[in-house]
Structure formats: structure tokens, C-alpha cells
Amino acid sequence: LVKMLKEDPSEAVKGAAAKGLGAMGADAKEAMKDLRAVAQEERKKDKLKQTKLGRDAQDAARAIGEQLKK
Fold it and tell me: Which of 13, 22, 31, 48 has its CA 20 to 30 A from that of 61?
């Protein structure tokens, strides 16, 4: 899923990969850096509103972080 998040040309596939990683929770902790990087890159594209991919990546990172706190 990380490879898809980073390399697939389709925004829809990247978003689905981000959601999949988020659903994995703590098992996807190694993906946190990549999810944050995608979210940050998406914020650079449109500073007025967050893109869907940016929201998906941010939500996934948040979900993983919450699982790591448990």
C-alpha cells in the first residue's frame, strides 16, 4: 500500500491506499512518514483548501497515531 501511495499516478488509487493504511491502524506505523509527506505535498498544491488525497492521508495518519497511543 505504501508503494501505491507514493508511486501510483492515480489520485483515487493513492487515496484508497491511504485509507487502507489507516484501517490497518498500528500495524501501519511505518507508513506514518509517507502519509504525512503526502498530506504536506497536497497542502502545497492548494493552500486555500485541502485536497481529497491530502485529507485521506491526514486522516489515515491520525487513525494510526490514535492506535499507537493505546
Answer: 48
